[in-house]
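Note to self: keep these together.
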Amino acid sequence: MQKLLTVAIPCFNSQDYVGRAIESLLPGKDKVEILVVNDGSTDDTDKIALEYENKYPDTVRLINKENGGHGDAVMTGLKNATGLYFRVLDSDDWLEKDSLLKLMEVLGQMTEPDKAADLVITNYVYEKVNEGRSCAIDYRKNLPTGRLFGWDEVGKFATGSYLLMHSATFRTELARNSGMDLPKHTFYVDHLFVCYPMIHVEKMYYLDVDLYRYFIGREDQSVNEKVMLSRMDQQLRVNRLMLYQLEVDTITNQAKKDYLYYYTEIVTLATVSFLLRLGTKEDAQQMESFLDEIRDKRPEYYNWIMSRPFYRHPMRALRKLPRWLSYPLYRLAYKIARKHFGFN
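Structure:
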């Protein structure tokens, strides 16, 4: 009998927390396939995963591979998935039990093609453990709840509420046939994981539960601000792939195109904000050159940004306001958003 859900857990030296990630999926029992993708770890990650595989042979499978980075591990998981639906769980995160059981109930109703969603959306929670607080991201103002819907019913997304990897459960066949090829040895490919399949998504379902618990707190974590600033080359690489490799301009459904434009703008805003955060004249020049590059290579997208109000598309301010005003405003806006949403 086919599993309802495959969850890939990309792991690199995750011995201290991979057990929690696996344990959080076990309530799904025989309806869940857990693929622990060991991406060349040098610690006891594989031994811990093997113990779970031996204990739950019908549920847990260990896949050992040479180190290729997070995206390569995700692609390995997708290649080996046998479940009807597919999602990713980073090894230091976990899923909430009751929400997982509700998700499994919904997926159980989608085994027939006419009842199946291409994408099932759930909420996620930033768990800032070191600060003792959390912040839930939901889509109640944007999406119909508890039924299938199409792009014509998707509302405007507020700042901070866009769909991340943590909120996405894709139909496995759709994700596998989407043309997705995540680059090796590159962080921040989560955005590509969402966008490649999203281009092909037509039917969606929003389950309003706080499923994914997104741990933030490790100093070596990829979303730690200092780490992100040190990896600007990888942020730019992913941003450019979103801008130039995804064929968003050819999408005929305007609501879908607007959403993918919006998502790309959010990632570009992050790139711009980090370059400004670095604070050097050279980084500011690189940021301006990057915006010029977008103008020249993606004129339709660039014009879309420039035609929007300042409050909805703050990147426009960088091109319309003097630098002595726009740069400090941008840095301040980033600090406020970071504190409010707790994203790194």
